[in-house]
């Protein structure tokens, strides 16, 4: 007879999650190391009770972390997974109705970035006794609820309407979370009565299970085709994406570039895979990328993409590749991405794929003239960057002044976090990363409000690193509540709050069609004006940060900013460095990149 134990569905889920592990290259770690949650109608008496009981009795090791915003806790979980190379993922639970739907933007961000997170939204009562719940009715189908909105942004979705359905659903969820091809947001919808319903569970469901994350090897014939195209190339280019970092292939990529002379450009997710001062590192690619990367991409005859899906921001709608006869070879663990750009596919893990290419090209390298051309372009790009860093802007600091100062102060292992707006484009040009985890910029979903919550997740994932958030006032106003979480957890995070009193990425290109300052500045409405065009609206974000428990330092000049960041970094508490900048001091487009002015914000 199968041994069973009587638990509620929520208690069974918590016990199951605490027993899951991931493994790659012989290293095991907790797959679900904890849970974020906001409790209320829909999950308090289910998952909330189960997490509390686990904490009090020690029956299951699943630490609970308090969140202040449901979207924010998903951002924190995503940042954690990114820092852990997608080998660990947090669970996030919310109550029925608005609490759960608040997680949808975070779910979309996770799936867009292909980062694992387990979402446990609350749901209406499965028995439909109370109906409707929270006054949400579907007139066309009785089984549709607002939780169905998660379907479009999840890589896996299931609704548990009976306790016994949890066993196959939870197992399938773990499979997707640990699959580098399929991973993203995984959603298990749990009606509130099912969460609290008791049932007999087989003890085997709770056994320790290790999910092996393998490294697929390239097919020999595909390797032969890819290496043949590279051998025929005169001006090849490597585009390194996030897959290089998640695979831990950085050292191999650098050695491959040195041996063959192929220059390396980076996407936003791949920045830092090759140190910025590597002789063949041409910098960020795309409309906001470096001069060297744009020139090499424009001339390239063969492009080897490694771990990238060629998002529009990286290719400017393919416009950065100017050679009409350019050919693509895509090394990617996902078949879908390997055939992008009508490429010759090489389906494999990035590390093993590079190893195979090294073996296939041991007696080949680019010509000396092309190596020299790459070095010349890199030197010119460095000159342009140094020119941007020259300073002298006034009376308020420019964005470049802020980035130059941070580049000089932060160590190689320090993590800079940023998201939507104008700064990601500036960072793509100017941030000098040597460590693959030092550059943490979310732009696949371009989600304002990501930075503060992501700082919690990144610090939780690796407390040994200094975490520095570069957040504008617009993004800060979207979501700053998790500062309270940093303080509660005793975390030390440095928050650089760049105050330009509006949406600078919209305000700066005033010559372009659009709302310009009318929708980009914080202004009062005078009388019956159609647009808010009155006086500037004062917003004291520093006071807000202090009210959440952070220490606050103020800076009005570059020198004051340097002193404040150094003090914050030397401190032991979460500290906000508030600095006012010129909202119109965005960087000029890279020379030779006609699309950059329109796209670099």
CATH architecture of the largest domain: 3-Layer(aba) Sandwich
Strand count: 23
Mean pLDDT score: 90
Biggest β-sheet: count, sense, barrel? 6 strands, parallel
N- to C-terminal distance: 66 Å
- Number of continuous helical runs: 24
Fraction in beta strands: 15-25%
The CATH topology of the largest domain, please? Answer: Rossmann fold
Detailed description of the structure:
By secondary structure, the chain is an alpha/beta fold. It folds into three domains: 4-212, Rossmann fold; 220-381, 3-Layer(aba) Sandwich (Rossmann fold), CATH 3.40.50.1220; 389-599, 3-Layer(aba) Sandwich (Rossmann fold), CATH 3.40.50. It has 24 helices and 23 strands. The chain has a six-stranded parallel β-sheet. Strands 14-13-12-15-16-17 form a six-stranded parallel β-sheet, sandwiched between helices. Strands 19-18-20-21-23-22 form a six-stranded parallel β-sheet, sandwiched between helices. Strand 8, helix 6 and strand 9 form a beta-alpha-beta unit. Mean pLDDT is 90; it is low at 594-601.
Summarize the structure.
This protein has 601 residues and is α/β, with parallel strands linked by helices.
Keywords:
alpha/beta; 6-stranded parallel sheet; 3 domains; Rossmann fold; 601 residues
